[in-house]
Design a protein that fits this description.
Chain lengths: ~375, ~300
């Protein structure tokens, strides 16, 4: 979050005297394990290509060789570079872990994205160039899901307002604060699947669900929460809001508690009360925290899927579909990995562009105005 | 009793009245929202003790509207009369529960271990890997947060099939650890930033190595942050559904997948659904109540600078 200056980092002066033999051992470890990895991978590729059967059942041997190489790489840092190597050892494991589990699959995903690959058919993968792109272009359901994401994301504004209000009340002088805090936090702890069942299926049941009965009592003749597209979308939004409002609320509450008491008191002395104090003191002070909370909330919102998959399965007519739930069904129904991956990749690119613009924008407005 | 001589003037009384009204307003909103938060949990808990007619009538309050019955819990073999007997459903449930527990715990431990080390390194030493300096490396880790699971899901499906990790616990553990790692690093960076560097400097002067100082001096101080990161990871991984639904089928299925697969065929048996759901969320409710301050600490990290 904050810019880190390199000047105040922990400085350690060491005089390492690493013998040449140890360096050589380190280098030997790296290259040796890399060679082993290359050898195993080549042998496995040859088998896949049908040159000779070496008796591999799957690609596990290559995986093991890779893990071996990664461990050797970490170990060799200490052998070659001594103290500096030990420092590298703090970050290197995590970096290797993330790179292995995201960068490789993403590159591999790029390969799949441009192929026709039905996992249940025996044909295997075939490149089909830009066919998937063309199919995506003409797929109204995908664009519909993208549009839905815009609506879902816009709902965050309302969630934010509610979360802010609740945080303000929790920050006021109230009794039983601990009880309210725990009660407000609980929805966040529950699994979206259980929430889907508890609220989406059980409480919204048309005949005897308590919310339906409440709606009838309030005068809505035929409560159908998933009947019309708009209503269904709104219901999903509400359920998602129910789970995630605590998250924003807690971040905002933390921000509120960090505001120095003198500031609010000085404002009160100056005659700013209630509404005015909020708009002119609290809200501007809370702007950086608010923006962080909203950005993180958007990130989580863009992953929304569990509730949709389990409550509406995208219906009625794709009105509640999120991109994730749409791709999930696309795979479930047709086991088409290629097309689904392309859709996901396009989504990722869209997210990256959107978030970059948003963060640039937020950066400009996050600075407190004076 | 003497007559009161000094009266509050009307102008002074008015604000007090509005303050009372304000209090009343705050409390009523708080109570309404607490009700909104707690009612679904209450509903699930009570529904698990209902039988069919009670559900149809929409009975609300046990012992008043209906007589509680163990039917839902009997269906998953966890009622008092079936707990001693063999039950395939219970074995199934316990297996899923065990899977969820093992996967969530291991993934959280792995993520906290890797994330703590990385966060410590990034907050104390300056690195330069190729073009990447500390800030870039931090950004690289944190940027993983925006990666939607669906992008990784299908490539992983194919890759895991090739290395025979499909439907295995270890496969899910790796993915879950990956998905919570940015959050752990975020929290731990905040934690380490609050620990003065003089501590390590003193330890180094006393002859400890870097790792020695980290393990014996810094780690104990950073423990609250680690607990917060761990609990938050635990919550997220315990609840994860998407990857589990795609990548597991019989052996490594977790509790959310089991809950989700109950709906569908031949109508819903509300009572057993409620019992399973409630059993699935119960550990988290307990964690939420007991460890609330750690969760809040974890989520507040980075919010305040």
């Amino acid at each position: 979050m904050s810019a880190m200056s390199t000047g105040d980092l922990l400085h350690v002066v060491t005089n390492d005297n690493i013998p040449e033999a140890r360096r050589r051992l380190g280098r030997g470890l790296i290259w040796g394990s890399a060679g082993l990895l290359l050898l195993v991978a080549t042998l496995q590729t040859l088998q896949v290509l049908g040159w000779r059967d070496f008796g591999f059942a799957n690609w596990r041997p290559t995986l093991y060789a890779y893990v071996g190489w990664a461990i050797a790489l970490c170990w060799a840092q200490v052998l070659i570079r001594g103290e500096a190597g030990k420092r590298v050892l703090f970050v290197l494991p995590a970096a290797l872990f993330v790179i292995s589990l995201t960068v490789f699959p993403l590159l591999f995903g790029l390969l799949i994205a441009f192929s026709d690959w039905n996992l249940s058919s025996p044909d295997g993968r075939t490149f089909n160039g830009l066919d998937n792109v063309r199919q995506m272009w003409a797929d109204p359901f995908y664009w519909n899901a993208m549009l839905n994401m815009v609506w879902y994301t816009l709902a965050i504004i309302v969630e934010y307002a509610i979360a802010f209000g609740l945080a303000l009340m929790l920050n006021a002088q109230i009794r039983a604060r601990k009880f309210f805090r725990v009660a407000f936090l609980l929805p966040l702890m529950l699994s979206p699947v259980a929430v889907s069942w508890m609220i989406g299926k059980s409480m919204l049941e048309v005949r005897f669900g308590p919310i339906s009965r409440l709606a009838r009592w309030l005068g809505w003749e035929n409560p159908a929460f998933f009947g019309s597209p708009e209503m269904a979308k709104l219901t999903i939004m509400l359920m998602d809001a129910w789970t995630f409002i605590p998250f924003m609320m807690i971040m905002i509450l933390a921000g509120l508690q960090a505001i120095p008491k003198e500031l609010t008191e000085a404002a009160r002395v100056d005659g700013a009360t209630g509404w005015k104090a909020f708009w002119e003191i609290t809200f501007p002070l809370m702007l950086p925290v608010s923006i962080t909370a909203i950005l993180i909330r958007i990130i989580f919102k863009l992953k929304l899927a569990d509730i949709v998959i389990n409550v509406t399965a995208g219906g009625p007519g794709g009105a509640t579909d999120t991109v994730t739930s749409f791709i999930f069904r696309e795979y479930r129904d047709r086991s088409n990995v290629g097309y689904g991956t392309l859709l996901a990749m396009v989504y990722l690119v869209a997210i990256i562009i959107f978030m970059t613009v948003l963060m640039k924008f937020a950066d400009r407005y996050a600075r407190p105005r004076t | 009793m003497t007559a009161q001589i000094f009266h509050d003037s009307a102008a002074d009384l008015a604000p007090r009245r509005s303050a009372y009204l304000g209090r009343l307003g705050i409390y009523s909103v708080l109570i309404i929202w607490a009700f909104i938060c707690l009612f679904p949990i209450y509903w699930t808990a009570t529904t698990s003790f209902k039988i069919a007619p009670n559900v149809m009538q929409g009975a609300m309050i046990p012992w008043v509207d209906y007589t509680p019955d163990w039917k839902g819990w009997r269906a998953i073999g966890l009622s008092p009369d079936t707990i001693g007997r063999d039950s395939t459903v219970r074995d199934e449930f316990l297996k899923r529960f065990g899977n969820s527990a093992i996967i969530a715990l291991s993934a959280s431990v792995l993520a906290v271990a890797l994330g703590t080390l990385a966060a410590y390194g990034l907050s104390r030493f300056s690195y330069k890997w190729a073009w990447m300096k500390n800030n870039d490396i931090s950004f690289f880790f944190l940027s993983q947060l925006i990666l939607p699971p669906v992008v990784l899901a299908l490539p992983f499906l194919v890759l895991y099939r090739e290395v025979d990790l499909l439907d295995s616990r270890i496969g899910l553990i790796l993915l879950y650890a990956l998905s919570v790692l940015p959050i752990v690093i975020w929290i731990m960076k905040d934690q380490f930033a609050g620990i003065p560097m003089e501590l390590e400097e003193a330890a180094l002067v006393d002859g400890l190595s870097i790792w020695g100082a980290f393990l014996t001096i810094i780690l104990p101080i950073a423990l609250p942050g680690m607990v917060a990161a761990f609990i938050l990871s635990l919550v997220l991984t315990w609840n994860e559904y998407f990857f589990a639904a795609l990548l597991t089928s019989t052996h490594a299925t977790t509790l959310p997948v089991m809950v989700a697969s109950q709906t569908g065929s031949q109508g819903i048996s509300w009572w057993s659904m409620a019992a399973i759901s409630f059993a699935a969320i119960l550990p988290l409710i307990v964690i939420g109540i007991v460890l609330e301050r750690y969760i809040i600490k974890g989520m507040a990290a980075g919010a305040v600078k």
